[in-house]
Amino acid sequence: MSFEFLTPVSEEVLLHQENLNEQSLGKHIKIHTKTDGVPELKGVQLALIGICENRNSVHSIDSPNFDTVRKEFYELFPGNWNFSIADLGDIKAGNDVKDTYFVIREIVSILLRKQCIPLLLGGSQDLAYAQYRAYDDFDQMVNLVNIDSRFDLGDASGDLNNRSFLGKIVIEKPYNLFNYSNIGYQTYFNAQEEIDLMDKLFFDAYRLGEISSDITIAEPVLRDADMVCIDLEAINGSYLSYNEVNSPNGLDGKEICAIARYAGISDKVTSFGIYEYKNAIYQGLSEKLIAQILWYFAEGVNYRSQELVVREQPGVLHYTVPIDDEVLSFYKSSKTQRWWIEIPFISGIDNKLKRHTLLPCTYKDYENACNQQIPERWYKARRKNEV
After folding, report:
1. Confidence of residue 349 (pLDDT cuts 50, 70, 90)
2. 158: closest CA among 273, 83, 255, 56?
3. Residue 367 and residue 334: Cα distance in Å, rounded?
C-alpha cells in the first residue's frame, strides 16, 4: 500500500498558490500535484490530508471540498519553524465507506512509521475511528482526546456513524484504548446514561464552562494524548460560516487555537484530526479559523521539548507527598516548568501500560495533594491500571 489513493491538490488551489507572497506557507509547503506526484517526505514533519467522506454522518450533507481551507492556510506566514510541511491532497470517498476507512488507516499508519504527523481534514467524525485503527499496527495503548460538545458513545451495537464512533472504539477488538478524554462537552447534548458511563469507564470529561474559565486545564490532558480530534461543532456557531447544526454556545476562536497549540506542544501527539467540516454557500470564516487551528498546531510542534521520558531529563525535580496510605510522586521539569505525577505500575497486568506510568498534571494538582486531596485523574488512571 502506498499513496496511490491520494488525489492531487486541485489546479484552482495551485493557481492561487502561484500568486502568494514568497514568504507565505504556500510557497514553502511541498504539494502533491498532478504533474509531480506525491512529494518526498524526507524531513517532513506534518502532512495535510483532506478526506472527502460524509456518508456515515447522521446529517445528510454533501461531500466536503477543502480548496478554500487550503487557500486560507497557504496564505498564512510560518513562524520560525525548523521543519517542512507537505500537502498530500485528498482521500476521495471509496465505493463503500469501509473502503475509505481502509485507505485512511493505511495512509495514517505509513505516516506514523515515518514519524510524520498526519493533519486530517474531514468529513464526518466517524473518520476518527479509522484514524484510531491506524494504531493497531503498533504495540501500544492509545490515549484519545476529543474536543467535542458530545461524547459520541452512541449506540455501539448499531452501525458506525459520527455519533457512535467512540462506542465502537470501546467495544471492538483489538482493545487498544487506554484513555478517552473529552474537552468542552455541553451537558444538554449528552444523555445522563452516557455521562454515567464515562465515569464507570474512568474516562475524563471537562465541561465547556470549566475550559472557558481556565483554558490551562486542557494542557496536561493534551500532553498525554496520542491522537487528538476536533469536532468543529464544539465551536461557537458565530465563529463558523454555516448554520445547519451549529450551537450558539461553544469554544471561541482563541480557545480552540490555544487547544490546538497545546496539542502541538505535546511530545506524544502523533496524529491530529479536524472533523465535521461542511461546504457553505458563503465560505470564508470557517475556513480561516480551520487554517489558524492548523497554524497553531504547527507552531506548537515547533516548540516541543522532547520530554517524553521526563525522569531522565537533567534538572528534573522530584517531590513526594504522603496521603493516607499512599505516597504520591511528582516530577517538575526545570526546563518547561511542567508537572507529572507517577502512577504505580502493577506488574503482570499489561506491559503496554508501562509507558503510562507518568501522568501529566498541573501545579495545582501538587498543591491539592499537599492539602491531602488525591488528584482525580491520578485516581482514574490507577483504577484503569488495576482492572
Report:
1. low
2. 56
3. 17
Name the nearest CA neighbour of 50 among 97, 17, 10: 10
- Please state the pTM of the whole predicted model: 0.95
What is the chain's Cα-based Rg? 21
| Those residues with Cβ within 8 angstroms of residue 213's Cβ, 6 or more apart along the chain or in another chain | none
User: What pLDDT was estimated at residue 311?
Assistant: 81
Burial of 81 (0-12, 13-18, 19+ CB in 10 A): middle
Peptide bond into 344 cis (omega under 30): no
| Sequence-distant contacts of 110-116: CB under 8 A, at least 24 apart | 110/1, 110/2, 110/3, 111/41, 111/47, 111/271, 112/137, 112/138, 112/270, 112/271, 114/41, 115/45, 116/41, 116/44, 116/45, 116/46, 116/47, 116/86
Measured CA to CA, the distance from residue 164 to residue 264 in angstroms comes to 26
Closest CA to 143 of 182, 109, 177: 177
Answer for the pair 49, 90: CB distance below 8 angstroms, yes or no.
yes
Average pLDDT for residues 32-36, to the nearest whole number? 96
Q: How many CB atoms lie within 10 A of CB 252?
A: 13
Q: How many Cβ atoms from other residues are within 10 Å of residue 380's Cβ?
A: 19
Q: Residue 330 and residue 124: Cα distance in Å, rounded?
A: 40
- Quick: pLDDT tens for 319-341: 999 998 889 999 999 999 999 99
For 247-275, the pLDDT digits (tens) are 899 999 999 999 999 999 999 999 999 99
pLDDT value, residue 324: 86
Widest distance between CA atoms in the chain: 67
